[in-house]
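For this section, I looked closely at a protein sequence along with its fold in token form, which I now present.
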Amino acid sequence: MNDFTLNAQARTDLGKGASRRLRHAANIPAVVYGGNKPAESVTILAKEIAKLFENEAAYSHVIELNVDGAKQNVIVKAMQRHPSKQFIMHADFVRVVAGQKLTAIVPVHFVGEEAPVKKGGVVSHTTTEIEVTCLPKDLPEFIEVDLSNAEIGTIIHLSDLKAPKGVEFVALAHNDDKAVANVHAPRVVAEDEAGEPAAE
């Protein structure tokens, strides 16, 4: 079931000072919770977690987390990165229980963008990820948005997308049909007949 694995060690030295010491030692503090079990504080090698999350699919994939030899399936719930250097500073994982629905953030892949661009349109992505709920076995690696038939003035909403089998969009369940992308005309500066910018 798992193509993604991480090794971790349990930690008892908690607090901001302990977290700073871990990072100086090239380790990342993390928390595992959910699944009707107590929250568990762990530490993961910085280079190992960085390598795993170079693959975009890891953000929306079930991960096999090996904590001191005890394996459990998890998904990433939140990731804190350094504001300027972008390296991972902290991670939250949620345990996955077979047969029990989970909520995850899935990246959006846009395809067919060249079609509206050839018509003179400009494509704007208003979201790059979508929150979904589904069983672990149905968790998609990404949601595809096809823009090949989009015209200038088109706005793509969540309700326009076809969710994979067994997958629901969380926002729609809360009546939030948010925009995902839109195609608009390029902004141009108005010019007068002499070719000079028009006076306001």
Notes: The first strand starts at residue 4 and ends at 10.
